Amino acid sequence: MKNEFKNKKILVTGGTGSIGSELVKKLLEFEPHGIRILSRDESKQNDLMLELGKNSEKVRFLIGDIRDYDRVNMAMEDVDNDPFEAVKTNVIGTQNIINAAMANNVSKVIGISTDKATDPVSVMGCTKLLAEKIMLASYNYQGKRRTKFCFVRFGNVLNTRGSVLPLFYKQIMRGGPVTVTDTKMERFFMSKDEAVCLVMKAAGMMKEREIFIFKMPILKIIDLAKAMIELFAPRFGFDPKKLKINVVGKKRGERIHEKLLTKDESAFALETDDMFIIVPVIGWFQNRHSLNKIYPKAKRSRVMDYSTEGKSVLTVSQIKAILNKEDSRLLAMVKDCN
């Protein structure tokens, strides 16, 4: 991994976001030549610059939007790696990334996807799936260009924008009630550090057109609410036993169980102790016997849906232990969301 990033010029789009900023900090540890951050929010760029301190000397902040092809093209000039993509406009933005990467002969592009793209039931999930398909299908028209693409799929990332944690925290801070959509709702989740690790691991392992998926712990959303109430209610002078949880019903298009890998995808997937790797269908039958050499310690995946349904979930005590580690980040996230 050291050699993957050392002395490289790296572009991080969405680099002031929750995961993007963590990725920038981690990349700086690997002695890159420089990092360019393309994002739309000047104030967040200033905040990150102050947070990085002396390390910000290697970082160049660029104001722009991935929906603006000319801006993306300029940002990607003479870049070696594009390890992170915070997609606001999933289809047009992805096409801009593809075109600019090929035009500038960028070596690797790692797209960020979500469990919502797996067998999607929402518009957001459908556009994320389309982003995956567009980027991985770009192989068919890249010609002699060296650019290689892959994707990583995340579950829910703790303490990111859109996470339920800041909402629950603010509801507890006001004395409740804490609102949960459904008592049966389950989700995959991972920390920001794990999300960054998956992006960087993919950069080192990728050959081309894979989708990398970490095996993640599962929790019930109502258990998360209970854990947060037990942990944080006393902080604001409330008795955890008296703080109510209201079940408000799930939103349209919202699933009780989440899925990261479909049965059809698993037929063309490899499995290691900590991840699944969906490999390109083209060439699968010719190369399947040597794939464990390409991806060390990988074996053929079981043919199955990898979903939260029927799996073991974390206890309230286990969730509390995780939240204790995330406490300072949660406070920062709550402040950011106000």
Quick summary of this structure?
The protein has 338 residues and is of the alpha/beta class. Helix content is 39%, strand content 20%.
Write up what this structure looks like:
- By secondary structure, the protein is α/β, with parallel strands linked by helices.
- 39% of the residues lie in helices and 20% in strands.
- The strands form four sheets. It has a ten-stranded mixed beta sheet with strand order 3-2-1-4-5-6-10-15-14-16, sandwiched between helices. Strands 7-9-11 form a three-stranded mixed beta sheet.
- Helix 5 (90-103) links the parallel strand 4 (81-84) and strand 5.
- Helix 7 packs across helix 9.
- The radius of gyration is 21 Å and the shape is globular.
- The two termini are 37 Å apart.
- The model has no long low-confidence stretch (mean pLDDT 86).
Name the CATH architecture of the domain at 2-156 and 189-215 and 259-306.
3-Layer(aba) Sandwich
Helix content: 25-40%
Which structural class fits the helix and strand makeup? alpha/beta
Which strand order spans the largest sheet, edge to edge or round the barrel? 3-2-1-4-5-6-10-15-14-16
Tell me the CATH superfamily of the domain at 2-156 and 189-215 and 259-306.
NAD(P)-binding Rossmann-like Domain
Q: Count every helix, treating DSSP H or I runs of 4 or more residues as helices.
A: 13
The counted number of beta strands is: 17
- Low-confidence sequence ranges: none
Q: The CATH topology of the domain at 2-156 and 189-215 and 259-306, please?
A: Rossmann fold
Biggest sheet, in brief?
A: 10 strands, mixed
First and last CA, distance = 37 Å
Order of helices and strands: HEHEHEHEHEHEEHEEHEEHEEHEEHHEEH
Rounded mean pLDDT score = 86
> What proportion strand?
15-25%
Regarding CATH, which class of the domain at 2-156 and 189-215 and 259-306? Alpha Beta
The shape, in one word, is globular
What is the gyration radius calculated from CA atoms? 21 Å
